[in-house]
Amino acid sequence: MSTLFSNYQWIENWATIPSSPLGETNGRTHGIAVLRNGEIVVFHQADPAVLFYSPEGTLLRSWGNYPGAHGLTVVEEDGEERFWLVDEVTKRVVKTTLSGEVLQSLGPPEISTYLQGGNYIPTWVAVAEERHGGNGDIWVSDGYGSSLVHRYDAAGHYLSTLDGTEGAGRFNCPHGLNLDTRSGEPEFCIADRGNRRFQVYGVDGIFRRTFGADVLHSPDVAIPMGNHLVVPELIAGLSILDGEDRLVTRIGFQENADTLAGWPNERSWVREGQFNSPHSAAVDAHGSIFVVEWITGGRITKLVRSE
What we know:
Shape: globular
């Protein structure tokens, strides 16, 4: 194991989900991000859906009715942080302020797939931010519907659709997106989860490469951490890849978790030191890793790097 990832303290139930009827019957924790001020934001399937925590795990405030809370992305515009929120139930894809004001909405494009009855269930957003050398385009993954990725310009005008055949092969649940700037040139990593790999495209929409098929099982999204990628895998743990997209180590894997009776929602399978169903992750300025999981009632774990 790389020494960078060999000394982590596991903090079980680092933060708790506030009690609510929907939180108890659903409450799945699907998105997480770290703000510039160090606050940690969790997007979960309850009302309110957007939860703000201190680095110590104290709930600070909350807002938002997003029953299908799924993808959470933080971007910057003119020095201000903004959210892109994706609701898989209502199919809302919106950009908001940190206080919840909706600034922009995107709907499905009027393409033959949907006009002919194809399903649209969006899962994630990534933006080619200009501060990272991008062109401002917005990419939206239809991960749970027709397995497509749609491209819009910054104003929300539809540009094109990717289905994977222009790359390594037809997408099978392009679940998560992220803008990867590790190489110094921005590119999009698409978590082609059903195919157990990532497909990588330039911000121009041109395919560049694929990676992970030989080592990944069920990648959800890729989170840059310095020169590495933290990859939550639904079944079930974190995979860490290096700057050349090679596996460095795995953290907290519960092998064959999906074969356990009642997985992922049977709480008897939830054990400290093992993940159950990682769905997203975030990294703070100190190198701590926060992980949220696809489990009724939610689960938020913090991994603190030990010096």
